[in-house]
């Protein structure tokens, strides 16, 4: 999720554990711990594929964060300023641990994928039920923390505790609802593939900033398809449209392609653009705006020469494509998204 949401979640969790003992300090400490795992963005690797696929790696590992929690709890309590507060080591340990691990667990609800079990190497966990930025999840957290901080400042600490609990509960219920909707959309997608006599793997994800319009990607042995389903559709049966060939064979023997195949769990396609091999992550985006596209090889004669991978610039849609997204969300059109005439982002 975005940094604001992770800070808000960390603050809310910290407040639930330490509000009565630490006051505003519990929220500040939770906010800091809640954003700590994302400091891995400061680590720059040699190429674009590694920068993307190693993010949410070691710093998001449940093993690493669990091992780090008692160290941080001990260091905090060793600091003389914190010794004046009557907080047991076990409460401080619980605060540190929950604020840290809720970060990667929330990230695992997005489509990007999170390596919860690093250094083990299963494909990144992606329950894919919430967009990376969703105001309806973030706002209850911010409102709850805001009221708690206000009433704490007004010297009404017991009154301030409950707005934070309520805000965290509302956000958690929204997250649970998104997960339930994702499973419902997956079931609808499976029924539709059977009706259309298509056989393959499905990936379900919400479209930007909402959980009302969902995108379903189907990869078969050689092709990929996509469908969009809105909660406001009269007919909730997804209609899959052919996206193109996967062309996975073009990437045989290329390390960056193998890395992306693992990272996407097979939801990628390869195409040739200007004598370059381009790999696209099919899980994220709304056609034709696919944000994770990588140049991984250059054509030399009859073979592909690996190069230092680069991420292609993100595209931005025209106004009429945004209009389509809004209309599709409200169930006012069943057309597939247009795939022409998009511009480079400024």
UniProtKB/TrEMBL annotation:
Q: Where are the transmembrane segments?
A: 57-76, 88-106, 126-149, 161-182
Task: Note the coiled coil stretches, chain numbering.
Answer: none
Keyword set, alphabetical order:
Hydrolase, Membrane, Transmembrane, Transmembrane helix
Q: Does the keyword rRNA-binding apply?
A: no
What Pfam families would the database entry show? Answer: YdjM (PF04307)
**Protein name, please?**
Metal-dependent hydrolase
Q: Which GO terms describe its molecular function?
A: hydrolase activity
InterPro entries reported for this sequence: Transcription_regulator, YdjM-like
Does this entry carry the keyword Transmembrane? yes
Q: Which domain of life is it from?
A: Bacteria
